[in-house]
Amino acid sequence: MEQESFVIRRLAALYKAEFVPLQDVLDRAAEQYGIREMTVDGIHLTGRGDRILAEQWYRSFTDQAVKT
Fold it and tell me: Does residue 67 register a pLDDT over 90?
């Protein structure tokens, strides 16, 4: 997973896009709520997982908007 994140970070920088780090947030949520509450198959998120991902994405972009 770290290798994929590295590649995605490089692509984001290349295209001047925002990289939103989500893996740690989702890992912590899985520890808190249990993996079955976060994903149905280890890849696809449940409603709770989707909500946590969306909240983090929104927080990241609203924080960026305040900084600019």
Answer: no
Residue 12 lies in a domain: no
**Residue 55, beta-bridge partner list:** none
Q: Looking at the predicted structure, is the pLDDT value of residue 6 above 80? A: yes
**Per-residue CA distances from 14 to 5, 25, 27, 43, 45 (Å):** 14, 24, 27, 27, 28
Torsion angle of alpha carbons 8, 13, 16, 19, nearest 10°?
A: 50
Query: How far is 63 from 26, CA to CA, in rounded Å?
Result: 19
Cβ–Cβ contacts within 10 Å for residue 52, how many?
22
Domain carrying residue 38: 19-67
Angle of the 47-67 helix axis to the 23-33 helix axis, nearest 10: 140
What per-residue confidence (pLDDT) applies to 1? Answer: 60
